[in-house]
Design goal:
The chain has 128 residues and is α+β, with helices and mostly antiparallel strands. It has one domain. The protein has four helices and two strands; from the N terminus they run H-H-E-E-H-H. The chain has helices at residues 28-47, 52-71, 101-104, 111-124, and strands spanning 80-86, 89-97. It has a two-stranded antiparallel ribbon with strand order 1-2. The two termini are 33 Å apart. 14% of the residues are buried.
Length: 128
């Protein structure tokens, strides 16, 4: 993540395709509205001591909703940019892709996170 003080020097700018605006458009308001409602449902499931299977279904439903929402943005859905909403903050911090395991708990890391994970792993792997 980044605070994006200088869009011309984005730390992952080598992955941003020409024509992608920084900051990058995404359905932030719709996502945040859904998440507020979803978090309330989650809290109620916990308060009611509902079975874990219901919480798991809520997570699956959330993933489907998010994928459907993001699919409406084909120009940026799978592209690298600077999407506001990161570091557990809705404003002021930016992530590299619209979707990533680090943001929505989806099943994949974005390219920037994947590169970072590989870099850390390489630090611990002996090279010949």
């Amino acid at each position: 993540m980044t605070a994006l003080h200088d869009p011309d020097n984005l730390k992952w700018d080598h992955l941003v395709k020409e024509g992608i605006a920084l900051p990058t458009e995404w359905p932030k308001e719709q996502f945040e509205s859904f998440q507020r409602e979803n978090q309330a449902r989650r809290a109620q499931l916990r308060a009611d001591n509902r079975p874990e299977s219901e919480m798991n279904q809520l997570f699956r439903d959330e993933q489907e909703w998010v994928r459907n929402l993001f699919s409406g943005y084909p120009n940026t859905n799978s592209g690298v940019g600077a999407f506001e909403g990161a570091n557990y903050a809705a404003n002021g911090y930016f992530r590299s892709e619209m979707n990533c395991l680090m943001f929505t708990r989806d099943t994949f890391f974005c390219r920037v996170c994947s590169d970072a994970v590989e870099e850390v792993m390489d630090m611990y792997v002996e090279s010949d």
